[in-house]
Structures
1.
Amino acid sequence: LQRKCSDMSRQEERTLPTKKESVYADGVSKEHNLKILQLNIDAISSKVNELRMFLEKHDIDVFCIQETKMLKKDKTPKFPGYVTERKDRGETRGREKGRGGGLITGIKRNIPYKRHDGEIRGPKDTITEWISIEVPTTDKKKVRITNAYVPPIRGSGSNQAVGGARDRKSV
């Protein structure tokens, strides 16, 4: 992560009205500059402390982390002040100890959201991993933030759909 910290400074900042309360509910919204961090972390376990420091230093509101390489039995890292949504890669029978893929999305506790479970893959895509959340905005609208990872297809002998990577829905 140390080498990648310079890459983290390229977070995207957008103006987005959000509510200040900690629930997804009707009410009055205030404008808030929402800072979103996207990072392919390539295994999170040894990089948690550095990531926590970066989130605090740069006042990140939502972070989308790919390739956590966590297994279901691993505890979700704690990020003070954030609620996390996690999705691990499905474990293939016989390869339960193989680590790969995986996502964590973190949302500041004062930002209301709800998880959105809509499908983003096309009919032949069996490899894309994603977590989507919706954050309410003014006028009862919402913005959807999707944390997605598309693993590389490893050769033509793969049991994954050959057309999978080309057969994605637009998001």
2.
Amino acid sequence: FWQGVKDAPIVQAVGGALSGLTGETAKEKTSKSTQANYNKNSTIINDAAKRNGLTPQFMAGVAYTESSFKGDSTKANSSTATGLYQFVDDTWADQVARSNAPEAQPYKAQAQAYLADKNKGVPRSKRKETYKALLSARSNDQLNAVIGGQYLRQGLDALKKTGVSNPSMAE
């Protein structure tokens, strides 16, 4: 399914994912937009994949599913999920607090404080206000991809610990 992502336009790689759109104009517009977003973010996606021992195809597939490669400040309508890999507030704070990536270090202490406040029962609205810089960092596509790769790696490792020998085509 994801064979040839590096060599072919991403819309070819995702095959029928766009076929449900009505009207050729909408389909063509979405294809061009998706391709442009992929082109913009492919280098950071590939770098994050390499750094986390994942395939670029796996990382690209998740980014496509989560944000159509839009990144930046792409936000889900029904949750706090934001960015290329659509992290919600609490998961973002947890992953940044765990990260050893150089890009995450400026936010690590704030992430740890966010989690401590969460554990103390500080309301989400207060945490959103207090930790704006940390939560806004999800809009940094490079950091979001690095943390996304870290999160995916942790998930695959957890599956392997349960006895799933090849949880995906990620490796």
3.
Amino acid sequence: AIARIYRRGQGVDKDFAAAARWTESAAKTGDPHAQDELGALYRLGVGVEPDLTRARQWYRKAADQGYAPAENDLGMMYRMGAGGPVDYERAFGWRYRAADHGIAEAKFNIGAMYELGLGAAKDPVQAYRWYQAAIASADPTTRANANRALALLKARMKPPELAAAERGLVH
């Protein structure tokens, strides 16, 4: 709460360094939301020097507690090779967990990973399924991205794959 006051400048001057210090205090107590937030601060260099290795470490602490936004963030770090080597299998695993916990962006990203064969076997039917799940989300940006991706995927799918996907069959 104090970190948010400094970050937003509510009744005090905006002070991102102070916000980062308060966020780190909360993160060190094991608060997964604060750990995820601190990961983002290190990733973006807001109030702290950018440090992708530390960002990945803080995301991991929160993700290990089942904090879905951090699972998605950690998946992004593994996919991009930010703060360590690229690891598509781990990226897929963390994003799958986040998707299973309802994170719309993770559902879209799982679809993309199935479509491209990153971290999982290339599978257009599974990609279709996950894009549909992302479209069903309440997040308008993710919904729009998934609609575009699904339209492009459908144009490239073989008729039996498209028929299976539209029937909801996953092989």
4.
Amino acid sequence: LYQQINAPFAPSGGLSVRPWEEPGQAPELIDQLEELIAQYEGVSDVVTVTASAGEDGAISPSGETQYYYESDAAYTITPNEGYVLSDVLVDGQSVGAVSSHTFSKLTTGHTIRAEFEPITFTVPFVDGLTGDTLDTQTVAYGKDAAAPQAPQHEGYTFSGWDAAFTNVRSA
């Protein structure tokens, strides 16, 4: 007695059921109860995500990481001290300055790249007698501002600025 046997379920994720027998060959008749194992072919069961970060921060995990097909992959992005996250690019497209990104149900490879920029501060140099702003500088975190020429006032001797302007870490 010969009976048509079908796969027990429909495969998903780009897979298809391989024929139970080789094409062009007659099906084998089964005359006793036997276990048949469905074999699948299709896309790779591994998907690669390549993660990178600019030199002023990190992404974790970094480099090439392989994931099972249709699994999720979570990434965390952290700037170094003195820097802020400026953008995250997924497959070359900006997703904004997000501190984490999750790929859901991976079916193809992806890239993710984090970009950073220095925190900057505005350093004003003000004349203590007149209140006039002599110079204003934008300084990156941890860098030095350059003092402008000291103000000159008759009857007064300039004795210095009221705060340090080297290794600037706050406004």
